[in-house]
Amino acid sequence: MRQLAPALALLLVAACAPTSQATRASAAAVVAPVPVTPAAKPAAARQWLGDVQAISDAGENAQRRAAIAQRMDAMGIAWRKEAFVDGKREGENLIADLGGPEGAPLLLIGAHSDRVEHGKGATDNASGSATVLALAQRLRAQPLQHHRVAIAFWDLEELGLLGSKAYVAAGKTKPALYVNFDVFGWGDTLWMMAPATGQQALVDSSKTATQAVGIGFSPGEQYPPTDHLPFIRAGWPAVSYSLVGADEIKLVLEAYAGKKPTAPAKVMEVIHSDKDTVDQVDATAAVRGVDAVEKALRGWDATAPAAGTTTSANGQ
């Protein structure tokens, strides 16, 4: 997740750029968490935490990608490297096809794998990469009905969203939807970057899913800049998810509205700093978030027409 000055929450006004000219001035209301204790999933939490640890401890960006590739090998997922050049910078995305119904539209799920020089990049963004790996495992075991699925791990997000920009610029298959994950490490609320139009079905499905899991939900257009932006700017449908505390979202949105927050949000104190280590993440909370997103995507997929079907202008 790109950020200008972690210590100054007010600078998030500049970081939280609108995704389009139609960005609303006010943010969507946060749906409060439901006081429900979900069934514990210790194995899933251990695996997610192990993936965050492996990626954040790996070292530099190339080693982080190698840790992700090793995990995909262990899951039996065939992956490929896609190198790119942006000016004098060279990067490398990792892409994997998970399969699905033949001829079905593409659901692309991704996160950036790179980090800044400070800290170990556990929250930003080993947490997002581990979440993509967790969803990949689930969606391979039980494929979606109406979409084929691919996953992506973008390089050089921290230098200007370069990996995702390169993917879009290369003229790859336009997905039915790109779903991004950035900063998915703790908290009780699923924060969703949802454009004003075009993704209401997924917003509704996400609301239902978070209520079922027992966490809060906050959709809206105001959201920090990350890898959903190149897709949206190209006219490709995209959303992004983070998992944080409900109180943090309020602080971030106050800063976006030009108000001075009472205190910086935790996320602003952790990312891009020496504090960004695995000690900050909460695997139990993260798996609840993964549960919610999986339910949301399955609900969204179930409403889509089967591959090969057509719909007339009047919906018949």
Descriptive notes:
- With 316 residues, the protein is an alpha/beta fold.
- Helix 2 packs antiparallel against helix 3 (61-75) and helix 2 packs across helix 10.
- The protein has a single domain (9-302), classed as 3-Layer(aba) Sandwich (Aminopeptidase).
- An eight-stranded mixed beta sheet has the order 1-2-4-3-5-8-6-7, with helices on both faces.
- Helix 4 links the parallel strand 3 (106-112) and strand 4 (148-154).
- The chain has ten helices and eight strands.
Descriptive key words:
disordered C terminus; globular; 18% strand; Aminopeptidase; alpha/beta
Topology diagram in text:
Elements: H1 12-15, H2 42-57, H3 61-75, E1 79-86, E2 89-99, E3 106-112, H4 122-141, E4 148-154, H5 162-169, E5 177-184, E6 189-193, H6 200-213, E7 216-220, H7 229-233, E8 238-244, H8 246-256, H9 266-270, H10 283-302
Parallel strand pairs: 3-4, 3-5, 5-8, 6-7
Antiparallel strand pairs: 1-2, 2-4, 6-8
Helix pairs in contact: 2-3, 2-4, 2-10, 3-4, 4-10, 6-10
